[in-house]
Amino acid sequence: MNLSMNQENPMPLPRRAIGLDVGGTKIVGGIVTPAGEVIERLPPVSTPPGDQSAVVEALRMLTDDLRAKQPDVSAIGVGAAGLIDWPRGHIRWAPNNAYQRLPLRELLEELTDLPTVVDNDANVATWGEMRSGNQSQHMAFLTVGTGVGGGLVLGGELYRGKTGIAAEVGHLIVDPRGGQLCGCGNVGCLEAVASGTALGRYGQEAAAQEPDGTLARLAGGPALVTGHVVHAAARSGDVTAQRLFERVGYWLGVGIASLVNLFDFELIVIGGGLVAADDLLLEPARAAFEQFVFAREHRELPPIVPARLGADAGWIGAGMLALDLAATTHSDDRLPSPVPAQGLVH
Ligand SMILES: [Zn+2]
Asked: Residue 194 Cα, ligand 1 centroid: separation in angstroms?
């Protein structure tokens, strides 16, 4: 392929992309290079509630702002919470946002005239981590925050399954008889027992048992205990709070053991809000992982390490994914052809 600018191939190789991360409460974004270097960064804006057309409009305005600063951006990458058909970029459903059946990729391409990719927020964060330092061809990324999300890199590629909705690691069933309800309606999902939300719930239960204890005192009452309160109490040396972290870490390690048994990962990266607790979370996770992983004495155990990009992994990864795909796509000026997903109701 002739990469010089000519009539047959008028597009120069893309060097900068807009990355956007649409969460349940806020949208963050900026401009990145193929190496993940941040060129511009916008202050977060609130995700408009209710009307999904308002979300699209907010994304268009952010894109316009960024292009005003750097007119030479050549692609857009969006990570969004929810179930997203790949490569169509069609958001089928998002539990914490009002949108449903939103053809976001198509809408943004029409509004901006830039090639666009739209993927799950955890997938783009995984890509960001994989391309920006934790560079393994065989890795799992788990975000442990309000919920548990994640992405799987198998042989250097994001694994998306048949339609793009694979790698819902938060809904691995680890404790179906424990009775902990998941937001998805199931019982015993990893997210139900190993998230920040679960930590807060454990904290409330523990504080109800010890109404004069540190947790209840810090929160102003047992019912007010959150994951953040448990973290603060554990940091201050409170043994009850530290045991709750051990419980969350234990379940996380159980889930990781199953993932490693299936995929023989080389590296496990943990991101999300709870990783701020570092070894309070990761030490019990490593211990449970080693307890449950298959053939532990006969294999090299993958390290379980904290993420490097923090809260920026999503939008940086989204921009890098757009650039990576643009660099490998040589037909027209559009990113992977939007093949209709089969066997799905839209
Ligand atoms: Zn679930």
From this structure: 11
CA of 185 from ligand 1 middle (Å) equals: 6
Read off the pLDDT of residues 33-76 as tens digits, 9 standing for 90 and up. 999 999 999 999 998 887 788 999 999 999 999 999 999 999 99
Task: Render 89-118 in DSSP notation, one character per residue.
Answer: TEEEE-TTSS-EEE-HHHHHHHHH-S-EEE
Phi and psi based region of residue 102 (left: phi greater than 0; alpha: psi -120 to 50; beta: remaining): beta
Q: How far is CA 221 from CA 96, 195, 235, in A?
A: 28, 21, 19
d(CA 187, CA 44): 34
| Centre of ligand 1 from the C-alpha of residue 169, in Å | 9
pLDDT band at 9 (very low <50, low <70, confident <90, very high): low
Ligand 1 centroid – CA 317 distance (Å): 25
Quick one: DSSP state of residue 177? T
Ion ligand 1: residues, CB within 5 A, are 171, 182, 184, 186, 189
**What's the whole-model pTM score?**
0.87
Q: Which of 91, 70, 67, 71 is nearest to 80 (CA)?
A: 91
245 neighbors 230 (Cβ within 8 angstroms): yes
